[in-house]
Amino acid sequence: MRYAIIILIVLAVPALAHSATLKVPSQYPSIQAAIDVAVNGDTVLVAPGTYVENIDFMGKSITVKSEQGPDVTTIDGNQAGRCRFKMCGFHRVSSLCWVACVSIYCESLPEISTIRGEIPSRKGYPGYLYSDLSELYERSGMIEGSTGSITQLPILTMPNDDISHPIPDLTGYITEGQIVFDREMHNRGIQPPIAGLPSLSRLMKDGIGENRTRKDHPHLASQLFAAYSYVKDVRNLASVIGEEELTPLDQQYLAFGEFFEKKFISQASDEDRTIEETLDIGWRALSMLPVEELHRVTEQEIENHYVRP
């Protein structure tokens, strides 16, 4: 199955009703002990000191914060666990929030809507699906009165791999970008299996180019996208007539596609690759095609980066 991960900045989700505050160490001897008994919406309030332990949030939607700020409260993993960091007072915290899975919530709405006797809309989903998703996604911005923020990574499973299904379709209207994972690429061992064509960022143009990444970045990205799009057409053609019947140029595009996926998209979890190195790999991929096929880069960029045989 293909997965779409929608990445955006949102404000904090309001705490659940009847949340409790669990104090460490006055009520619980350790931070983990308090986490073990906490439920979603609770706050673990930690007194000043150094706590030698490794903590596991166990998937709970809770807040762990220091009582008097990060300068006087530290979690020390003793070089044996996952954490050695200073506790953050909420006025400074920047947090990462996973929402898994948005589709599960959306799939429950038709059932609830039917019980309420509401008139169904597209594919049986209620008409307020869009507004419900907006309430979840459109909380962009910083936390008022704080220097921190919360990054939300909702995970959306596309029903039947259909990106035009109401859930991913409406999500695409709301968010500023998405990363789509492809099952076929995963089966071929490409990790991360990011599908280059449906994945997008509407803010990318504002963060690349001269004085940001590199001057040739925008044109290079456009040319790679166009060439990879043609690769998809060639592969579809090859599945009908066979690779041996393809033209020499189409054979070059197939080789380009393989290199692009295995060298440009694929990246090991422990591979520390700079943006400049990634852009250079992109030019190596384009160098597998004739210069005459490169219509979206300038002659000067070709002169500077294209590797001629």
Keywords:
alpha/beta, 309 residues, extended, 35% helix, Rossmann fold, disordered N terminus
Major sheet: 6 strands, mixed
Number of domains: 3
CATH class membership of the largest domain: Alpha Beta
Question: Judging by the overall fold, what is the CATH architecture of the largest domain?
Answer: 3-Layer(aba) Sandwich
Q: What's the overall geometry? A: extended
Q: At the fourth CATH level, what is the homologous superfamily of the largest domain?
A: P-loop containing nucleotide triphosphate hydrolases
Would you report the number of β strands? Answer: 12
Mean pLDDT: 82
Strand content: 15-25%
Question: What's a concise summary of this model?
Answer:
With 309 residues, the chain is α/β, with parallel strands linked by helices.
Please explain how this structure is put together.
The structure is a single chain. The chain has 309 residues and is of the alpha/beta class. It folds into three domains: 3-11 and 98-204, Rossmann fold (3-Layer(aba) Sandwich), CATH 3.40.50; 21-93, no CATH class; 217-305, no CATH class. It has helices spanning 31-37, 102-116, 129-137, 166-174, 183-187, 217-241, 248-265, 275-286, 299-305; strands at residues 3-5, 8-10, 21-24, 43-46, 49-52, 63-66, 73-76, 84-86, 95-100, 150-157, 177-181, 200-201. Strands 1, 2, 9, 10, 11 and 12 form a six-stranded mixed beta sheet that branches. The protein has a three-stranded parallel beta sheet with strand order 3-4-6, with helices on one face. It has a three-stranded mixed beta sheet with strand order 5-7-8, with no helix packed on it. A hairpin with a 7-residue loop joins β7 (73-76) and β8 (84-86). α3 (129-137) packs across α4. The radius of gyration is 25 Å and the shape is extended. Mean pLDDT is 82; it is low at 1-17 and 79-94.
